[in-house]
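Entry under discussion copied across for reference:
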Amino acid sequence: MKERKKLAGKRIAALVADGFEQIELTVPMKALRAAGATVDVVSLRHGKIRGMNLHEPGARVRVDRTVGEADPAEYDGLLLPGGFINPDLLRQSEEARRFVRAFDDLRKPIATICHGPWVLASAELVSGRQLASWPGIRDDIVHAGGVWRDEEAVRDGNWLSSRGPQDLPAFVREMLDLFAETAPIHAPASPLAAESAPARTSPPLAALSATAFLPAPSTARKFLSTAATLGVGGLAVLALRRALA
């Protein structure tokens, strides 16, 4: 008899926007689907959104539903990947903030990594909680009333959080266990630590040196960037963008 998969019948929303850290979406999404879950990519717009490999453009992923179309009641859990750009866009969207709040109000599991907790902070959910994140946003969590922990995976009630791509093995393992639970998750939040872990004394070397290896932009792309910044020649810019795609 075929063994039932751990997350069979579960439906997970992955809330992401352009600029998501590619590995932080694709690796968890692959693991979720392998465990039997259905994963919908939910974003701010229709079409395809662009991933990033740190500072370098990555692949595009097709959006299944916009955040305005998706209903949190239809999902069993929420995945919030990071990246520098993605959560910055999401945290400015009232629809995205409302979407995230709905999951927490229903005590549904939320798994986030890297810069993803920015969205939780802007949704005003971090106060009194403890979580891990990319070290660079430690102060955002502390100023939002949370306790930052410098650990590979932190479970706090219905939340799971991790620092970044280096923690993906632990994050994915704990995420599968979290999403296997049935909401509402009434497990109490972990006892709040007395204080946050100290701030790092220097940024990660990989992030610090990444831009040194980016190729210089072509003349055409320099023109495109300048024209877009100045807001002139809209049709010409659009035509050039299509030609370069």
In short: DSSP finds nine helices and twelve strands in the chain. Residues 11-205 form a domain with the Rossmann fold fold (CATH 3.40.50.880). Residues 165 and 232 are 39 Å apart (CA to CA).
